[in-house]
Amino acid sequence: MPFADASASPHEEFAAAVERMAARALTVLGTAGGAVDGPAADSATALVTSRADLAAARILGADLFAPYLLAQVPLESGHEEVRAMAEAFRVFPPEALRTATAGGTIAWRDWAAAELLRRSGESTRAAAAPPPGGAPVADPGRWSEWSQRMAQLSPLALPGLDSRVHESARRGGVSLGRGVVRAMLRRDYRTAARIARWLALGQASGVDSPVDLGPVLRHIRLFGGPDARTALDLRVAELLAGAVGR
Amino acid sequence: MSAEVLRTAHQVASNALHWLQRSAPLGALPTGATVDLADPENPYKPLGETALAASLVLREGVAGPGDLQAARDLLAFAWQEFDGGDVLYERQLRHPMLTDPLETYAHFVRGGYRHRPLGELVGHLGALDSVGAIEMMPNRRLAVANAHRVVDPGHRSDWTALTAACWLGATPEPWMIDWMTAYHMTHTVFHVTDWGAHPAALPSAIADYLRLWLPVWIDIWQEVGQWDLVGELLIVDACLEEPVCDAQGWDRLARAQHADGLLPRDAEPVDEDPVRAFKDNEHTAVVAIVAGTVTLARELGVPAADR
User: Fold this and answer.
1) Minimal Cα–Cα distance from A181 to chain B, Å?
2) Most CB within 10 Å of its CB: which of A179, A211, A212, B167?
């Protein structure tokens, strides 16, 4: 077990597993997506070695598959990430998470991961789940709350996925831009990177961003913290915006 | 903008105006003040800012009779402190390269006062290349241009070039703005529009930029209780042809305002010493008066310049 520190609390153990999983995705992105300097991770190590790793897979959600989607490599049931996610859904079924966390954010993230799992040919009960109903995507007119909500939904900002959340992002460019600027000014680079992903996704499909993403992403890279999840959000945004090396 | 917001804006401004009027004696010039002011920042500069606020209340004429009288009294008090303009005249004679006598005088001109020798003096100085080339920050150069325009509507400046030289003129990355830059940005708008009198004078690219990002700036500075700056940003909003901000900024200012009308400049505790409390927060009163006045005037329609 890579994290056999007996003094670590379950929370610390989960957080470390999420970081490791995100770093791993970053490394794969580096191979598949042409990035050059992601955090070092030993991709020879098995993806999942503990229950915490499975929880981490559920937390990362669709982002676990980001390298494949960005490189336009079809997901297959033989892929290690697919097997890990399928197992994670079995050990941590969506219902258990949904009851523990308020609102539709988790439901939408579950939907995205499950939808990708379904496409890989993996047949789990979760993979058959329809998109969440009701009105979980708040009004983009309330730009501050809405953009923070979209930050939480950043794993959905991947090419190939489409839903009411994506539709709402396409209509909410101004609110996303304001959300990025607010997060930047508050030096909350994690939130900034997550919202910027939506703008980058829009830009990749021809929707103008109200804020120039190249300088924003470079700034986050230089000023943001070292955590792998932010680095992953950032890398995804860079690849979507075509901003690498600009 | 809803009637509710307008009521709030009016109330905050009116309370600030009466607080400023009651406190005005604390801001008097020291007896025997000479043109070589020991500290031009205090109380000379704040007295000019009081004149600015009062002149705008009178220019817009959207306040009630009690507020209009308070504004007239404040302007008369400040003019008297400057010996009917002689202090400004003497200071300009002694220091022809200084622009603050002109800038201060403009507020009185806006409020209906004139000092003919000073008017002649600043007109002459304003035509000199040397004075036009004084080294100063770009937004300060706009302040001088606006003062000349108020004193002499025939005065011409290259507003396009002056505006382009400012931070705001570059419509730069909105996420890089800091506290000081935010103040510079607000003053670019104040001077180009003469405090909301000419909203259309703002280049459309800048107006579009402000409509996009002003709500974010108000949001982040209200979060940290920078009430003085929030007030300035609300003035900027009211200087736009189509203001963009919602009720949040005004609601927060109203909640921060004390029962006696004092509006704290920031989230720090207000000093218990009344003189210190006045000096610390008088600028914020001016900001609140201007913000409420221009907001009401914009909502009620015709820009002052077109009346």
Assistant:
1) 5
2) A179
Residue B307 forms part of a structural domain: no
**pLDDT tens digits, one per residue of A113-152:** 999 999 998 866 665 566 776 545 666 778 999 999 999 9
Residue reference for tokens 């523990």:
A100
Please list every residue in chain A whose beta carbon sits closer than 8 Å to the beta carbon of residue B248.
none
What number is the average pLDDT over the span A80-88? 93
Peptide bond into B43 cis (omega under 30): yes
Q: For helices B274-299 and B248-256, what crossing angle results, to 10°?
A: 150
Name the pTM for this structure. Answer: 0.92
CATH number at residue B261: 1.50.10
Nearest to B212 among A144, A182, A210 (CB): A210
Residue B31 falls within a domain, yes or no? yes
Would you tell me how many other CB atoms lie within 10 Å of the CB of residue B45? Answer: 16
CB contact A212 to B (< 8 Å) = yes
* Cα atoms in the Cβ-side hemisphere of radius 13 Å centred on B156: 1
Q: Which residues of B fall within a CB distance of 8 Å from A210?
A: 212
Kindly report the nearest CA distance between residue A150 and chain B, in angstroms.
17
Q: For A186-236, write each residue's pLDDT tens digit.
A: 999 999 999 999 999 999 999 999 999 999 999 999 999 889 999 999 999
ipTM of the complex: 0.94
Cα→Cα distances B187→A8, A32, B134, Å: 54, 50, 19
A–B CB contacts, 8 A cutoff, strictly below = 34
pLDDT tens string B109-124: 999 999 999 999 999 9
Contact B12, B257 (CB under 8 A): yes
For residue B222, what are the domain limits?
3-302
Question: A35 vs chain B: nearest CA distance in angstroms?
Answer: 26
SS3 (DSSP) at B176: helix
Note whether residue B220 is domain-resident.
yes
